[in-house]
Amino acid sequence: MKKIMTVFGTRPEAIKMAPLVKELQSNGQFDVKVCVTAQHRQMLDMVLQLFDIKPDYDLDIMQHGQTITDITNRVLKGMESVLQQERPDMLLVHGDTTTTFASALAAFYAKVPVGHVEAGLRSNNKYSPYPEEMNRRITSSIAELHFAPTVGNVENLLAENVAKSSISVTGNTVIDALLSVVKEDYRFGNELDEIDYNNKKVVLLTCHRRENWGEPMKSIFRAVKRLVNENEEVEVVFPMHLNPTVRDIAREILGGDRRIHLIEPLDYEPFANIMGKSYIIMTDSGGIQEEAPALGKPVIVMRTETERPEAVQAGTVKVAGVEEESVYEAASELINSELEYLKMARAVNPYGDGTACQKINTELLKYFK
Ligand code: UD1
Ligand code: UDP
Description:
binds uridine-diphosphate-N-acetylglucosamine; seven-stranded parallel β-sheet; alpha/beta; Rossmann fold; 2 domains; 13 strands; six-stranded parallel β-sheet
């Protein structure tokens, strides 16, 4: 039996790799090993618990105030030992984090083939998202197999001379994860049950990207504050990322307002369900741009560009930039114009039908045949 090792370290990687781990395990065609770097500690553990995944290896690398160089060093060194010990037939990495890139590099040094899940997304700006765009490019040049969510992602890879035979279109595993946790009549069991989702316009906010630290993040939060001040019916829910840089700015600008709920990060199940109950979503996250359209929720993306153009083209995601005025205008239009809102609030799902993990399993079987 061939040995497949998966490695992931942050919340989004865990959410998107969990259904794949489950699929590979339940099919029983591979010897499956799970390694986590724990680039995130608590936010990773929340996902492991939800999906009941017990890693075989845990590098436990997270440090407060870690730089991308720290993460790279610690993952590279940790993965060297794990790969030496296990000698998997393939290492599956996910997406674009520093865990992804450093693990792929460690596998290359150990001459272990790499399969890249969520391959081929490009913004074509190496500093935005930073460092993710470059993490993805480097991982593409190392990988042996590329699991691309969309046809557009395949085209990006072909334009970089990646062999066509090594690429498959699978959809995004995030849809597999999302469909497994969103439920009608979901109850949170906390203060989120007290919000009047029918009569209030609930804005779900997330913001964490490195390129937004500092002035862009302040501008974004000022725009949100203005939106609340000028619209009585708006109520904001912001599950704050655990990064202290983000939390300090959020508390300074958004703290102390009874219509702004600054709360701890939510488990994936309540988070997916509050997406479903929200009026609109304002975010700089990658994964949320894929999930919210599937739930029919308009998304304002607080970034200068996106590597996920599919939902923008479909009209359910708007890239608003990071200026106070542009973010405010984009959100205000959706709050105040029913017509604009209805144009965007359509369920669109360019990221697959929830069978990405099954397709990846099939591609892996083909590869080893
Ligand atoms: C990382 C990824 C980013 C991804 C994001 C998802 C890199 C360079 N960045 O960014 O691509 O979009 O995760 O959330 O790979 N922290 C905790 N507990 C946690 C998680 C984070 O305390 O469970 C704090 C720590 O102080 C840590 C800091 O947040 O040092 C930053 O974490 P880090 O992984 O370096 O960066 P993110 O901004 O989370
Ligand atoms: N998410 C979550 N709890 C939260 C905020 C986000 O479970 O409090 C989920 C969200 O549904 C998505 C993923 O985390 O699947 C996005 O992670 P993040 O924004 O940290 O990273 P990115 O997608 O930008 O890399």
